[in-house]
Amino acid sequence: MDSASGAGPKAMGPGGSGTSLRTEHLLWMRHLIEAGEAGSGARTMMLPGGIVTRRRGRGLETDDIRPFLYGDDVRHIDRNTTARTGRLHVRTFRDERERSVLLVADFRPSMLFGTKRAFRSVAAAEALTLAGWRVAGQGGRVGVFAGTGRETFFHRPGAGDRAMKAVAGRLAAAHAAALAATGIVEDPPLATILESAARALPHDGTLLVATALDHPGAEFDAVMRDIAHKAAIDVLLVADPFEIETPPGSYPYLSAGGRRETGEVSGRPATRDVDRRLRRLELLGARTLLLDASLPPLDLAGLIEGFDARRR
């Protein structure tokens, strides 16, 4: 159960193996987004008649001043706040008509698991990338915050193909780092990742989180309520088919000490634990979507399209 069965190149796209991520695979996924969407750089203005126009450059209105994160543009360092606090701070800017989405990828050790097509971490990255391409194609701004349990990978929200290329690169690098990490037995709290990501979110933006909700942490509910009070938060709950419906049988597994052992499973009702996690997220103010990690990218694209349409 610690590996996913591979799918052919036609099913996975360039560089897709089910257990690892390549930038080329995530860039290829752009072609799964419906062809009718506006191209990058085309913005539909919020005026009667749906006038389409192009706007260049960034907005001039200051959105926020926050601590400097790796990947921020040094030209936007706020000197006054930096001098006052002794820590680097940057200004962020916005255009009132732009939608900003920060993709949050949970790449902690428990996400590196899969029994069929792909690891949960791979399916999470694919779904986030598909959502990112949709937002970018509609003229929005997209960034990424990926947490491996040991380090984080961040790229501030930007517009168009250039931003999505950076997002794909960060996701691939973060996933490679997660696979290469050793010595981590238990996940650090998910709440810590969400709290850090929320600090990097532009004002009135949306956090789109892909996670299995393993080991959320004691502060998770409080962190989620705080985020939901300030911004929109959507959660893609990623589940392996084994979690959705567990067939009875004898299954090998690795113990906490790294030993190979075998356990008997009598089977359990489908989706019971998954449904409980969905309800918990919804009660905390999040919109949710259940993603089966075994679904091929084309099916994931359809789910993401429907989820995005529900917002409108």
Automatic annotation (TrEMBL):
Q: State the InterPro entries in the record.
A: DUF58
A Pfam family reported for this protein in Swiss-Prot or TrEMBL: DUF58
Q: Where is this region: Disordered?
A: 1-20
Q: Where does the record place the DUF58 domain?
A: 64-248
PANTHER family per the UniProt record, alphabetical: BLL2464 PROTEIN, DUF58 DOMAIN-CONTAINING PROTEIN
Protein name, entry field: DUF58 domain-containing protein
Q: Which organism is it from?
A: Aureimonas glaciei
